Amino acid sequence: MLARLLTFWKKVIPFMSTPLPRFQTIREYPLTWSVVILSLLATLWKINQQLVEFPISPKLFEMNILAWYGEPWRFVTSMFFHEGAVPLVINLFFWWMFGTFLEKQIGALRTLAMMLWLATLSAAGQDAIATRSIGLGGVVYGQFAFIGLMGMARPAYSLLVDRSLAMVLGIWFLASIFLTVTGSLLAPNVAHLVGFLSGGLLGWAVLFGSRQQAIIAFIAMVLHLGIFMGATYGRPFLKVGGGADNDYNTLGRRAYDREEYPAAVKFFSKAVELQPEKAIWHYNLGLAYRKSGEPQQAKAAFERAVSLDESKSQFHDMLKEMEKEQEAELKQSTKPDSDESGSQESMEESPEESNAEESDTTEDSTGTEERTN
After folding, report:
1. How far apart are CA 93 and CA 195, in angstroms?
2. What sign for the dihedral angle of Cα 157, 163, 167, 168?
3. Can you tell me the distance from the alpha carbon of 293 to that of 33, in angstroms, rounded to the nearest whole number?
4. Cα separation of 197 and 191, whole Å?
5. CATH architecture classification, 244-372
6. What contacts 24+ positions apart, CB below 8 Å, involve 61-65?
7. 14: burial class by Cβ within 10 Å (0-12, 13-18, 19+)?
8. Are 100 and 29 a contacting pair, CB within 8 Å?
9. In a 10 Å sphere around its CB, with 0-12 CB exposed, 13-18 middle and 19+ buried, how is residue 213 labelled?
10. Is 2-238 a CATH 3.30.450.40 domain?
11. Predicted TM-score (pTM) of this structure
């Protein structure tokens, strides 16, 4: 094993030492350099966001369920963000190795097309089954599989990928799984696997004849369809360790911000269905029901939130507000000519005030958190 590692480093160091130190190689490898620079900037932006408030949040570009609902750029932009220095350095190391090689062999445009395809599939697969996808890992493993298959017939490719390199990437893959299980590092292991399979399919399609290409096209179509169905309709069943309720809450928050209250009710109801014991989901559902003009359902949702968590003052405040509104409606029914503008104005102000107390919680609620983030 040690001998294989030494063989790997003896081969890699000369390969890396030629272009890497010279910045003028940006003309020779424009795509590889662009991804390196964007990854460094995006990761620094993500880290500094925790210390310095920026006008735009990196969360607008990270992968989550919103990618399936009108924000498709997340499939690609999420690959530039990394959780820390170790994943960033490792991914950029292999990206530089594979990226420069592919740019020289097939050109920047084809390498770009491959990167976009691998990034999209790996991010979608990770988001459908496990946690959110982040980093270049899926792309790197896809490039590795592609180059490895191409090396079966083309000597130039076999010079880069051999058993020593396969062993190193295999060890990193197993280490990522171990670190994820132990909670030391949240690695996108599903993205790594999906990227590897996608890159292998691509290499197979390029390498073999038309009949095999038809078979590969069918397999790729099934893979695409399976990921799409899993990430949308099958999300509650496939999401390992739960978390689908957070995804639907995210959709509900966006609909609420856009004043699409019936849609917000739909998504918050789904979150409640998946996690009925989570008080904050009932509270968010109550806010959406209230804005939709359904006071009875809103009151029931707030009552359920209070029963699940009596410590949150905003839950009690909103429940009291709903009771006041019902009393005002009852009085109005007996006095149809009364002026309701004063009470209505206070009703509109109360949700903001009660939600302000939610800003220091860790829950991803509909209230102040989306306004303070």
Report:
1. 17
2. negative
3. 54
4. 10
5. Alpha Horseshoe (1.25)
6. 62/132, 62/134, 63/123, 63/126, 63/127, 63/132, 63/133, 63/134, 64/127, 64/132, 64/247, 64/250, 65/127, 65/231, 65/235, 65/247, 65/248, 65/250, 65/251
7. exposed
8. yes
9. middle
10. no
11. 0.71
Name which residue leads in pLDDT, 16 or 302. Answer: 302
pLDDT tens-digit readout, 166-216: 888 888 888 888 877 777 767 788 889 989 988 988 888 787 766 666 676
CA distance 26 to 205: 30
Report pLDDT digits (tens) over 6-65: 555 455 544 443 344 355 577 889 999 999 999 999 988 887 776 656 677 778 888 888
CB of 326 closer than 8 Å to CB of 295: yes
By C-alpha distance, which of 317, 271, 269, 257 is closest to 294? 269
Q: Indicate where the chain has its CATH 1.25.40.10 domain(s).
A: 244-372
pLDDT digits (tens, 9 = 90+) for 250-299: 889 989 998 999 999 999 998 898 889 899 999 999 999 989 888 889 88
Q: How far apart are the first and last CA of the chain?
A: 48
Domain with CATH 1.20.1540.10 in the chain: 2-238
